[in-house]
């Protein structure tokens, strides 16, 4: 039985990817940082759970034992290139059939964001390794809406980006299904770069209006600085995210996240999740569990 290693297995793409791959009969090794309730849920589904740090070469090598295919995903933060080197080396040692690498839609060597530039460098590392790799260049997740759900509940739609900037948000589960289908056919997809977007392009202001419509709630778009935005999320001291968000604002002004691709629905053979469907699925996150007081 083919064993597939899923890193960040409790993340927005990792969790559904584990589900899809188990359903298709693969043996899934889920790599997580902590043995907690989320790890137990992965075990209950039938995944083999291992613990480790992507910046610890011993952990990565151990996680790769007996693996044929692997998913590399690294959160916004320091260490991406180093982690990619370790992952690529371990994969080469194990003669893996395929790596699926999560990258940025605007990946390029001279990116405004060091994080995005490091994703491009990581793509090169995997290609140099000789292990067949599929790079998924992904736009903004719909999960961004969940990050500000606490604000939406109280009638505020806040973003650190220009209201006119355009993008086509995609749901994490659609990315996960795309990756799962790539894993199922490594010979077809190895060596490819796939740009993934959602089904509809919006400006940030238009997306705020769509969320307002679905929730039947007034949510005028409000732009704040990246510093203020991170403080509102309770992570004001995260300098890496601050620099990345400031740089992505420039990417959007240049139109680098605009446009729609048909890659994900073509690979998956089904339509992608719409914003309305996503909000409906997570509606409780956006609504107060008690009536708002009258003005």
From TrEMBL:
Coiled coil: none
Family annotation (InterPro entries): Ergot_Alk_Oxidoreductase, NAD(P)-bd_dom_sf, NmrA-like
Residues in NmrA-like domain copies: 3-278
Name assigned to this protein: NmrA family transcriptional regulator
